[in-house]
Amino acid sequence: MTGTGDYSGQRLIHLAALAARLPEHGLTARLLGTDDPVLSVRHPGTGRRTIVFATPAREGWMFLWAPGGQESADDPGRAAEMISRTLSGHP
Fold it and tell me: Which residues neighbour 73 within 8 Å (Cβ) at sequence distance 6 or greater?
């Protein structure tokens, strides 16, 4: 069985990979929490924010954010692009 620490470590790895890609899209990010980390993401131009979760899924890990965003954690670049669109207000 996988312990909570294992999940926290994996979650942190995925969120850090996403955080590294966000500046390419003009976004800022900050990791929050230690046991169950999340990523606070902000678009400086619009002031919009969201919290991104990384969670285990049926096949690997997923990023989830409001409103209704999701992308495989295997592609943090694609997730960063989608989050940018969400926060900039572009479809």
Answer: 14, 17, 18, 54, 60, 61, 62, 63, 79
pLDDT tens by residue, 12-64: 999 999 999 999 999 999 999 888 899 999 999 999 999 999 999 998 999 99
Contact 44, 26 (CB under 8 A): yes
Residues whose CB is less than 8 angstroms from the CB of residue 75 and which lie 6 or more positions away in sequence, other chains included? none
Q: Kindly report the pTM of this predicted structure.
A: 0.90
- Quick one: 87 exposed, middle or buried, by C-beta within 10 A (0-12, 13-18, 19+)? buried
Q: What is the residue whose two structure tokens read 């899209």?
A: 25
